[in-house]
Amino acid sequence: VHKLHCCLNLKTATSLTQLFFKNTSLILLYMDTPLSTPCNIQICEVTCDSFRIMWDMTPEDTEKATHFFIDLSRKESRDHNRFKHRDVPTKLVAKAVPLPMAVRGHWFLSPRTEYCVAVQTAVRQPDGDYQVSEWSQVVEFCTGDYAMEHLQQLLDKANGSAGRLLKFSVFYRNQHPEYFDYVRECGGLMRPALKDSSGSHGSPINGKLQGVFFSCNTEFDTGLPPNDSPYGPLRFQIPAGQLLNPNICLYFADFYCMYTAYHYVVLVLAPVGSEGDTFCRTRLPMLDLASNPFLTYIAPERPEEEPLYCHASDVILEILFTEPVHLDRGTVEQISGHHQLMSLTTANAKKDPSCKVCNISVGR
């Protein structure tokens, strides 16, 4: 009986050993099977600083993949002389998760910027190396504008730089004589133009909202508009109440600087119910006309009193009025000061990405 028992144990041990080596061979064969190339890359839920990515994988790859490699780089500009350098592609190694996979915070993604992305699947080996698939095809996508929450962050920063409120009585717009000659030839109407790309790259109004730009800043000592302007020697002035009154909605659109100590705040004035108002209502923070740190309208308490108009003293306001304005509503006069260099204008000016005062963490 004892000999029979030993014989059975030997046979069992031998069978188990054979089974072990058979299973080990199957596992090694499974691990050595090449990973298929990811295909049908899809990008979704794109914001100004994040996106989700997914692709097709075989069931076998889905089961054994331990990591994903993602290669993201900014799409090269067609104008190769515009920048002195190109962005270096950045690779992310992430543990395999159910798709779609969220990509956020791994790069400083910029708003409204075109990117290229490709993916690999990988299996981490016991020695620390990776078995990887071929790179997928490259897919291009573009990040979005600032969302309302990002503009609120920008607004909070601008609040701290506004300074005290100063009285003013007119909005004004400086241009060259040729501009006003053209306006008169077209019936005297200053028509809205598309907002350029100046300021924060992610501002929702850039390249999308039309308007006529005005200023309202005044000199500390005189309370009047400055005598100088980089935009032209002729100035159109219009009473403040023509553009700022209870029938107007006020929106915050941007806060930026151009490598200078002073900052700009962009505001939008849109008549209630207008196309401009409809555009801004879901995209920009609305400001209370009577209580905000930038531009206020205080209604008179008595019939014989005049409304009170005030502007922020420590920032330069750029006011975009979304409707046409006729020259007959104001006056055009020559400014008494010197016409400054056009290089001092903010036309298509780029925001200083290093400024800690006016930048937020989601991009510039």
UniProtKB/TrEMBL annotation:
Gene3D superfamilies hit by this protein: Immunoglobulins
What InterPro entries has UniProt attached to this entry? FN3_sf (IPR036116), Ig-like_fold (IPR013783), PHYHIP/PHYHIPL (IPR042868), PHYIP/PHIPL_C (IPR045545)
**Highest rank taxon of the organism:** Eukaryota
Keywords, A to Z, come to:
Glycoprotein
Protein name, entry field: Phytanoyl-CoA 2-hydroxylase interacting protein
Instruction: Tell me where in this chain the Phytanoyl-CoA hydroxylase-interacting protein-like C-terminal domain is found.
Output: 142-364
Q: Give a GO cellular-component term.
A: cytoplasm
Pfam families per record: PHYHIP_C
